[in-house]
Amino acid sequence: MSELAPDVGDEADRYWMGRALQRAHFAAEQDEVPIGALVVRDGAIVGAGWNRTERDQDGTAHAEIMALRQAAISLGSRCLEDCVLYVTLEPCAMCAGAVVLSRIPRLVFGAYDPKAGACGTLRNVAQDPRLNHRSQVIGGVLRNECAGLLQSFFGGLRDRRQE
Q1: Which of the following is catalytic: 11, 64, 90, 145?
Q2: For a FRET experiment, which of 3, 35, 117, 119 has its CA 20 to 30 Å from that of 95?
Q3: How does pLDDT run across 122-149, given as a tens digit for each residue?
Q4: 11-30, pLDDT tens digit by residue?
Q5: Taking Cα atoms as reference points, which of 88, 86, 85 lies closest to residue 35?
Q6: Cβ of 12: how many Cβ atoms within 10 Å?
Q7: What CATH number corresponds to the domain at position 152?
Q8: Residue 1: inside a domain
Q9: Number of structural domains the chain divides into
Q10: Is 81 a known active-site residue?
Q11: Does residue 2 form part of some domain?
């Protein structure tokens, strides 16, 4: 496990990330990679998702995509200009692209993703000045809890494969 890092984000960010972590725990119970996401508007959840790639046999069924889809349906608009996306893992390139296309003004994530992170780690799609929209990105909110859940899940998966 990585060294504990200081927490970032304000009280509201930590609260909503904790709620996203609940979705990630649910995903783990379903034998999915434990990633959870919420779209919040005016202090209320308008979209929620967890990773469903195995269940749906759909490589695009990431937690962020599921939450953004639900929010768009809930609000009757693909433009989520007054919402915040909370996700337990730094979005990949596909999900970062969806954030841009959904016009999310603020993205808050938990754990950094050194293998696929596209919101600051490997690239920064959400803040690319060449695109028509950019999001404020805050990473590392409840990062230890978010990373710990992923490490525990993948550790258990490796243990089961060795049996």
Answers
A1: 64
A2: 3
A3: 999 999 999 999 999 999 999 999 999 9
A4: 999 999 999 999 999 999 99
A5: 88
A6: 13
A7: 3.40.140.10
A8: no
A9: 1
A10: no
A11: no
Which position has the higher pLDDT, 156 or 110?
110
Cα angle for residues 48, 51, 65 (degrees, 5° grid)? 55
pLDDT tens across 35-76, in order? 999 999 999 999 999 999 999 999 999 999 999 999 999 999
**CA–CA distance from 92 to each of 18, 45, 102, 123, 134 (Å)?**
21, 22, 15, 9, 16
Q: What is the pLDDT at residue 155? A: 83
Token pair in block for residue 66: 């599921």
Residue with tokens 């508007």: 41
Instruction: Provide the token pair at 149.
Output: 């859940």
- What ranges make up the beta strands (E) of 51-121? 84-89, 106-111
Domain range enclosing 40? 11-162
Residue 85 in contact with residue 107, Cβ under 8 Å? Answer: yes
